[in-house]
Write a structure and sequence with these properties.
The chain is of the alpha/beta class. It contains nine helices and twelve strands. The protein is elongated.
């Protein structure tokens, strides 16, 4: 049974991401953990009155959260009557990222699906702070769902890679499972810099070709040296429903994507974004 963590702050964006996860895995047996964390305002415990009011604030905050969580559960149970899906509610006094890290380890979470912060001004912020921290810190894959994204089955998946990934990454199987579940086509995109692939990269490419032999997959080369540009250009000519990247610590992707570029991709992409941690990340 797949265990999926669904953080919620009771916003429309969070509910949207929950709906996405339920529909993506509608044909799978899943345990969904609905998670809400709260941290009432900092307080001074110097006097009895202060500590009493702080405890009171904590109690009220928790009660409100429990009521809202019941509403979320009621909403999704009425919308999706799926006997293969089980929901577990978790409400806890903690920082979100710390609680997520703890649950990934203790509950054996396979995947986190979370919404993103809403629009500010003309530009939509796709990856909010919580989502970004989770992608950086969690030792399991994260799907970030842009606010307002109406569910569409990921039939065309875009997977940009420099072929420097570890072929023993256990989460490659998640890509294959999504392809299987959705009968999707995987578009593997490599940015060409004028240098041919070295032997290690060629071996990785051959490995991916064999690994996805039962799934429709195509290899593409782009001469756009800017990854964001390459992704955008690809999306103008293909109807892509899901973007996948592997977060490696010390390679091209760390430098190109997980610093300024991830924010750019975040601003420009309007589709869900699955980020898989490198093996190295899982070890630390």
């Amino acid at each position: 049974m797949r265990r999926i963590l669904l953080p919620t702050d009771f916003s429309d964006n969070a509910l949207n991401a929950i709906r996405y996860a339920i529909q993506l895995f509608k044909n799978s047996s899943c345990e969904f953990y609905l998670l809400h964390t709260y941290t009432p305002a900092a307080y001074n415990v110097g006097s009895m009155a202060d500590s009493y009011s702080a405890l009171e604030l904590q109690r009220v905050t928790k009660e409100n959260a429990e009521r809202e969580m019941d509403e979320v559960e009621k909403t999704i149970r009425s919308e999706f009557k799926n006997k293969n899906h089980h929901f577990i509610k978790v409400i806890t006094f903690n920082l979100l990222v710390l609680e997520i890290q703890d649950m990934v380890e203790k509950k054996g979470i396979d995947l986190i699906v979370m919404g993103t912060q809403g629009a500010t001004g003309a530009q939509e912020i796709f990856l909010g702070t919580h989502t970004m921290y989770t992608i950086k810190k969690a030792k399991c894959p994260v799907i970030a769902v842009p606010s307002g994204f109406g569910y569409e089955p990921p039939k065309e998946i875009l997977f940009p890679t420099d072929y420097r990934l570890s072929t023993s990454n256990p989460y490659l199987s998640l890509i294959r499972e999504i392809c299987d579940l959705q009968l999707a086509r995987l578009n593997i995109l490599n940015a060409y810099y004028g240098d041919p692939l070295d032997n290690e990269q060629k071996q990785t490419k051959a490995y991916l070709d064999a690994y996805f032999k039962d799934n429709a997959h195509l290899f593409h080369i782009t001469e756009d040296t800017d990854v964001v540009g390459a992704i955008e250009k690809f999306q103008t000519t293909h109807k892509i429903n899901l973007l996948i990247m592997i977060h490696n610590r010390h390679n091209f992707f760390e430098n190109m994507i997980f610093k300024p570029v991830v924010n750019e991709i975040a601003y420009h992409t309007r589709i869900p974004f699955l980020v898989i941690p490198s093996e190295e990340r899982m070890m630390h």
